[in-house]
Amino acid sequence: MSPCPSGNRKVAVVGVALSDCGRVDDTTPYALHAQAARRALADSGLDRSVIDGFASAGLGTLAPVEVAEYLGLRPTWVDSTSVGGSTWEVMAAHAADAIAAGRANAVLLAYGSTARADIRAGRRTGDLSFGARGPLQFEVPYGHTLIAKYAMAARRHMHEYGTTLEQLASVAVQARQNAALNPDAMFRDPITVDDVLSGPMIADPFTKLHCCPRSDGGAAVLLVAEEYVRDCRTAPVWVLGTGEHVSHTTMSEWPDFTVSPAAVSGRIAFGRAGVRPAEIDVAQIYDAFTYMTLVTLEDLGFCAKGEGGAFVEKGRLRVTGGELPVNTDGGGLSAQHPGMRGLFLLVEAVRQLRGEAGARQVRRTSGELPALAVASGTGGWFCSAGTVVLGR
C-alpha cells in the first residue's frame, strides 16, 4: 500500500501501549500517562529524543502542557483537542496531517484516568456534570443525564426500525465473549442475553450490562514519519485515511437520533484510504453503551441503516467465528472504560494488525493476519466522531 494522509510523507504507528488498567487505586492519572508513554516508546524501539509532537486532553488546567512537563517533553507541535471519546481519533488525524506536511516528525498521544479510584476515594461523584452554561442551559433543567440521552436515541432506533432489546443485549454478550480471551479485561465471566435483560435498570432501555463499567487506566500511541520506521523495533502500521465530524450538543439540534456522526467521519476516512467497509478485517468501535456499537456499524457502512439489530444478533462481532470481529479486547463494555476511551481503540487495532493479540488474535479465513482495521470513536452523546483506517 502507499498510504499518505494529506501531505507528502507517509505516516505510521510504531508504538502502542496501555498502562495498568482496571482497578488501580494507588497512583495518579499523571503516573498512568507516564507509564503508558514509557511502554509505547519501548514498544517502538525509538529514543524519546525523537518526539517533537505531543497530544493529550482531559487532565490539568493546561493540557497538554502540564502532562508534557510531567513527562519531561518540550514539544514544538501540540494538540489539546477535546471532543469526548472521539478525541484520540481526531488527534491521530491531526498528528498524521502534521507529520505528512513536515510540521512534526514523531507525535506521542497519551491519556490516563483514575475515574474509578476517584469515586472510591470520594474525590468526585459518579455523575460528572458537563455544566449548565451555553446551549446546555436549555436541557439541564429537565434533568436527563448523559446515559439518558443515549437511552433516548436507542429507543428511537427501536421505534423506527424494530430493533429489539435482545439484539442490543447480544452486543454486550459478544463483547464479554471477546473479553474472555483477554487476560487484562476487567470482566471475563460469560453472560447471556437473559443476564443483560434481567439486570437492574439504569436508563430505559439500558440495564446495567448495557453500560460500560467505570475503570482506571491509560494508553499511549506513537506516530512517526516514514523515515523513522527503519529504526523501529516493530513493523509499521500505516495511517491510510482519517475523518472527523461534529454533529450537535443539544438534543434538539440532532436531526435524527438514529444517525451518528460516524456516518460522516467514516465516509471521509474510507474515501481518503481508498478502501470499502467490506474490505475491513477488524473494527474497534466506541461502546460506552450497546447502542453505540449497533448504530456505528450501520453508519460506517457495514450494514444498511436499520439493519444493525439483525447484523449484531448473528454473532458477527466475536473473535471466534465472527464475520467482522468488533472490539476484540472486550471493548468498553467488558475490558475497561476509564473515560475518553478512543485511544484504547487505536492500541487494539494496531495490536491486531501486528499479530500481537494473543488468544484474541483475529485471522482471515486463509490464516493470514488482518490487513485492514478501522477505529471509530464517539464523543459526548453522539456529538462528535473520529474515524481512522489503518493497514499493514
Mean of the pLDDT scores?
A: 94
Q: Regions with pLDDT < 50 over 5+ consecutive residues?
A: none
- Strand segment count: 11
The general outline is globular
**Cα-atom radius of gyration:** 19 Å
**Tally of contiguous helical segments:** 12
Class by alpha and beta content: alpha/beta
Pfam family, one: Thiolase_C_1
Domain Thiolase C-terminal: 243-392
Organism: Streptomyces tauricus
Protein name: Acetyl-CoA acetyltransferase
Features:
Acetyl-CoA acetyltransferase, alpha/beta, nine-stranded mixed β-sheet, Thiolase, Thiolase-like, Thiolase_C_2, 12 helices
Give a quick precis of the structure:
The protein is of the alpha/beta class. It is 31% helix and 17% strand. It contains twelve helices and eleven strands.
Give an overview of the whole structure.
The structure is a single chain. The chain has 392 residues and is α/β, with parallel strands linked by helices. Helix content is 31%, strand content 17%. The strands form 2 sheets. Strands 3-2-4-7-1-8-11-10-9 form a 9-stranded mixed sheet. Strands 5-6 form a two-stranded antiparallel ribbon. Strand 2, helix 2 and strand 3 form a beta-alpha-beta unit. Helix 6 crosses helix 9. The longest helix has 16 residues. The chain is globular and about 55 Å long. The mean pLDDT is 94.
